[in-house]
Each structure stands twice: as structure tokens, then as C-alpha cells.
Amino acid sequence: MFRDRGYDQLMPSDLRTRDAILEAFRDIVVESGERSATITTTATRAGVSKGGLFYYFPTRDALVEALIESLADLNRDHCDRIRTAKEGPVAYFLRDAIATGTPLDLALTAVTRLDQSGKHPGARPALERVVREWRQTLEDVLGDAPLARIVEVLGDGLFFNSSLAGSPDAVVAPRITSSELEEMITIIANIHRASKD
After folding, report:
1. CATH of the domain at 56
2. Calpha distance 70→99 (Å, rounded)
3. Domain annotation covers residue 2
4. Torsion angle of alpha carbons 32, 75, 7, 62, nearest 10°?
5. Does residue 111 have a pLDDT over 60?
6. What is the DSSP annotation of 53-77?
7. Which of 80, 175, 185, 192 lies 20 to 30 Å from 121, alpha-carbon distance?
8. pLDDT tens readout for residues 117-162
């Protein structure tokens, strides 16, 4: 999943180790912030020595770059699924927006935290590219730019809500129920059908 120079020449066990290191780095950034994701804490969490980590990632910046690249890879797969989802692009996109803990969710959160630190100039363009790709994919499959934008913004709100959600009766961010989500999907599908008539 995570690619860089020499990635294609690594053995399967090396790929697993490399991915475990990158996932450990991502998870630390998500859970504790960018400053906590040191080489030492990343190596410890991944179960490798610092030398083992440096074999795959010679610098901390190499870890950051690989994390940003992993977001691009995950998003390409996500956009392909939007295009081909059996349940349709809107249902897939909106259901996925509330899915927390997925590799894409974790990568988005980690790269957002990298961007917020102000130390990683590649993070913001990567996040902007993700949003542009979502928008373009939705426009392509729906054939309706304003409706695609509505779906995109609704997905953003659902994502935000699910990241803050507490109980169903929480005031700040009540958890979206599955029936509420399905009603939203049905309404968007009806709007889409009506716009084609």
C-alpha cells in the first residue's frame, strides 16, 4: 500500500514490517499528535529497533512523506469504489463518511494533524488533492456538479459529526442513526432522479 523508492523490490515480510512502521507512526500522530511521533516511539510501537526503522525510513521526514503518499493511495482506491459501488456512489460515499477507524479515516486525520503543526508543507496540498478528487469523482458519476457538491458537503458534515459523536442524544454532535443516514441517501437519490427527468 505504501510506496517509495525500492518498494517494489522488498520481500513480503519486508513490506509487512515497513507497513507496520508506517501504521505505528500514523497511529501515534492520530492519538497523541505530531510531536509525540518520534523515531523512538514509532520504533517501539512497531516492535522494531531504531536501526530497523531507519532501514525503511532513513529520516523522520521520510516517514511523513510516506504517510502523505499513503493518503493519496488510499484515496485513489476510495474514488474507484465510489465509481463502482454496488449500492451506488452516493450511498457508498455517505456511508463511508461516518466510518471511523478505517485506513482512509486514520490517514486523513494524521495528515490533517501534520498540516496543523505547520511543519510539513506537503500535507495541505495532499489534503486539497483528496477533496478535489472526491469532488471530481462525484461530478463524474452523478453528472451534476451542484448535486455532487451537496453530497460532498453532506459527507464532510457527516465525517465531522462522526468524529465528535457521543451518544444519540448528545447536544454538540449527536450520533447519526442508520435510519437517518438511509433517509438522507434516499432524498439525494430522489433529487438525482428528478434532475435527470
Report:
1. 1.10.357.10
2. 18
3. no
4. -40
5. yes
6. HHHH-SSHHHHHHHHHHHHHHHHHH
7. 80
8. 999 999 999 999 999 999 999 999 999 999 999 999 999 988 888 7
**Can you tell me which residue has the cell 471511523?**
100
To the nearest 10 degrees (0 to 180), the angle between helices 89-97 and 145-164 is 20
The whole-angstrom separation of Cα 24 and Cα 38 is: 11
* pLDDT classification of 169: cutoffs 50, 70, 90: low
Asked whether residue 88 is assigned to any structural domain, the reply reads yes
What confidence category does residue 63 fall into, taking pLDDT thresholds of 50, 70 and 90?
Answer: very high
Average pLDDT, the chain: 89
Amino acid at 26: R
Q: Is residue 77 one of the residues assigned to a domain?
A: yes
> Measured between alpha carbons, how far is 47 from 194 in angstroms, rounded to an integer?
55
Domain of residue 141 covers: 7-196
CA distance linking residue 87 with residue 96, whole number of Å = 12
> What number of other Cβ atoms are within 10 A of residue 177's Cβ?
10
Tell me what pLDDT residue 163 has. 76
Question: Is position 171 within any domain?
Answer: yes
* Overall domain count for the chain: 1
124 CB contacts (<8 Å, ≥6 apart)? Answer: 115
Radius of gyration in angstroms for the set of CA atoms belonging to the chain, rounded to a whole number = 19
| Nearest one of 25, 49, 21, 20 to 37, comparing CA atoms | 25
Measured CA angle at 164 (ends 142, 105), to 5 deg: 55
